[in-house]
Amino acid sequence: MSINLLPLPQKLVLTGGTFTLPEQAAIALDVPVPADLFFTARCLQESLRQYGEVEWQIAGGSVSAALTLVLDHSVGHPEGYHLTIQPSGISLVANDARGAFYGVMTLVQLAQMYNRRLPTLEIEDWPDFPVRGVMLDISRDRVPTMETLYHLIDLLASWKINQFQLYTEHTFAYQRHRVVWEHASPITAEQILALDAYCRERYIELVPNQNSFGHMHRWFKHAPYKALAETETEFLSPWGNMLPPFSLSPAVPGVLNLLEELYAELLPNFTSGMFNVGCDETVDLGLGRSKTLVEQKGKGRVYLDFLLEIYRRVQSHGRTMQFWGDIINQY
Questions:
Q1: Which residues contact 214 (CB under 8 A, 6 or more apart)?
Q2: Could you identify which of 81, 169, 213, 269 might form a hypothetical disulfide with 99, taking C-beta atoms 3.0 to 4.6 angstroms apart as the criterion?
Q3: What's the burial of 308, exposed, middle or buried (CB within 10 Å: 0-12/13-18/19+)?
Q4: pLDDT digits (tens, 9 = 90+) for 288-300
Q5: Three-state DSSP state, 24
């Protein structure tokens, strides 16, 4: 018998029995500050309600319970937990609050597979990687609704994902740039604030993302931004197809002013200390307005100099910069 949990736990031992979830029971938060695990317990409580008449109450302290949650640093791994299901009940001992949440997510998966009759087992689990991220592209075709994003965040949390990014080119509703996004059903600042709070409850870091060099062609379709583009006309890409003006030009002073304005509006809506500025596939660099600069300094140096200018602006907002490595890996 195998159990296909996602992700697979570090250790899983089946002990040969079963435990049937009772209709009426308690979830005991046997921790110094029960409020710290209340949301985690509520997630389990809500999940169990779909199985007939199962209605478990939440209580602080060492009360008689079908499930007892305990925090104990002797578990030994950050975000780790030890889940034990016996015929008499369930014990979840976690290293920290995140570990307790992840243990509950594993228990929810087991209930989804086995309904109310769970196999008895012992699971020890902890993550191999401290950062486990997913990036979702919201800049090509349909932008997800908030309902879809909430559902996806719940799914990612159940898989112990702890970082989420919405890849953005032109789909954030910047106040002074309506012409760029007005037909793209953009994500608003208020929606980002709501998503950020929703993610934090589930131990996910919502990382801001705004491509800041290449992939800006949807901006250049509009007259106010054409002068910021590297090229004025289509060009032959390395992939053999013709592309429209694609990248911001490092040779145009107004480019950095635009980025400063975008960052100042976007970043306050996120609690993350990270910021992904993209900067990948600048395939038209040196073909237009920066041609002379590239001839003088070299394409790699021009790219790096502009990247460092972006970096200074990211630093001024107190963020750690992420960017794609496709260009810099060539040098």
A1: 246, 247, 248, 278, 279, 280, 281, 282, 283, 284
A2: 81
A3: exposed
A4: 999 999 999 999 9
A5: strand
Name residue 55's amino acid: E
Distance between CA atoms of 322 and 65, rounded to whole angstroms?
A: 45
Q: Please give the C-alpha separations between residue 302 and each of 100, 215, 326, 328, in angstroms, as whole numbers.
A: 48, 18, 15, 11
Contacts of range 7-11, beta carbons closer than 8 Å, 24 or more positions apart: 7/159, 7/160, 9/106, 9/123, 9/124, 9/125, 10/124, 10/125, 10/126, 11/122, 11/123, 11/124, 11/125
Question: Three-class SS of residue 262?
Answer: helix
CA separation (Å) from 98 to 39, 102, 127, 222, 247?
11, 6, 11, 46, 41
Contact predicate 91/84, CB 8 Å: yes
66 in Cβ contact with 27 (< 8 Å): yes
- Cα–Cα dist 54/167, whole Å: 40
Above 70 in pLDDT, residue 1?
A: no
The rounded mean pLDDT for the chain is 96
Going by pLDDT thresholds of 50, 70 and 90, the confidence category of residue 141 is confident
The encoded tokens of residue 98 equal 């995140």
What is the pLDDT at residue 143?
A: 94
User: How many whole angstroms separate alpha carbon 152 and alpha carbon 150?
Assistant: 5
92 - beta bridge partners? 69, 83
The torsion of the CA quartet 314, 317, 322, 324, rounded to 10 degrees, works out to: -30
